[in-house]
Design a protein that fits this description.
Elements: H1 2-22, H2 27-35, H3 42-55, E1 66-67, E2 77-78, H4 83-91, H5 98-109, E3 113-117, H6 123-131, E4 136-140, H7 144-156, E5 162-165, E6 168-170, E7 177-181, E8 213-220, E9 230-233, H8 239-245, H9 247-253, E10 256-260, H10 266-279, E11 282-287, E12 290-293, H11 296-299, H12 304-308, E13 312-316
Parallel strand pairs: 3-4, 3-9, 4-5, 6-8, 9-10
Antiparallel strand pairs: 1-2, 7-8, 10-13, 11-12, 11-13
Amino acid sequence: MQLRAARLRLRTVCRHALQSALRRIPLSWLDRLRITAPGRQPTRQRLRTALLEIARHRGIPSEVATFSPPDRPDLLFVNADSMILQRLYWFGETGYEPGLVEWWRYFCRRSEQILELGANVGYYTVQGAQAAKTSTYVAVEPHPSAARVCEAHIAANRLTNVRLIRAAAVADDAIATLSLTIPRRDHFGIPTGSFLPGSTELAGRPVGGPLPTVTVPGVPITSLLADVDLLKLDVEGQEYELLRAASEQLLVRRPTIFLEILRNTPRLRGLVVDLCTSAGYCCYVPARGTLVRLPLDMIASVDIKGRYDTRDVILAQPALLAG
């Protein structure tokens, strides 16, 4: 435990030193790197990516109030202390889950009622609601800072079809409020993930003493799922509990489901197998331009991240992919 804490402190010192050095470089130089297309030569592409991986540690420049990703000038985001936004600023869409967001837009266009649990700063909210402007889109985000930024993005992109719920989706209808835990390793003002108490399959223990918490309201998942035909969960280990609580509704409505499957999550993997066998789902791993069907006998054990370089899967009815 002491070694992990020491490594965390060392990473923090190194990060601050790198940020200080990068701020001495004229912003115009770095900005040229950010907006210049790399061309088709693989070596040049790899070099640009490596340089951007260094440059992104500068963060989003303070003088930038709003920005569009270099490859998506039609989208608008605000400057906030977020890893997601930082990567969008420097890399564009290619910098944050490009394969998954491509398929999120695809299924949003084919859906009428969309529910996103764990919207964070609203990157997927903006992408999905922009692609499906005539659909009803409900985004749920418990972290107060993330919810404020998500709301700003909804307004900046004039997404009138989105309703934001500032709460945590819960499996137990009796839970009115609960504590949201912020991991210390997330050094951004808006954490990429935060954790709810209770049953979770995520491993790991706090480093550096007690973790900061914030009290948030809870909203039962069963009250959110009426007529939903597309569901996305990014709920840091609560996927099993929420899907189990909603299992009867899922069997009736059979929405397409986007979810993250980590290693050492046997209960979630078992539930995915059950949904595939009882509700006619197929399990797909998203990649840019394609979906890889995951055989049923691999779901329980395959290291999705190690094999496919993603942690996410899509549960969908095969008929939705026709054409």
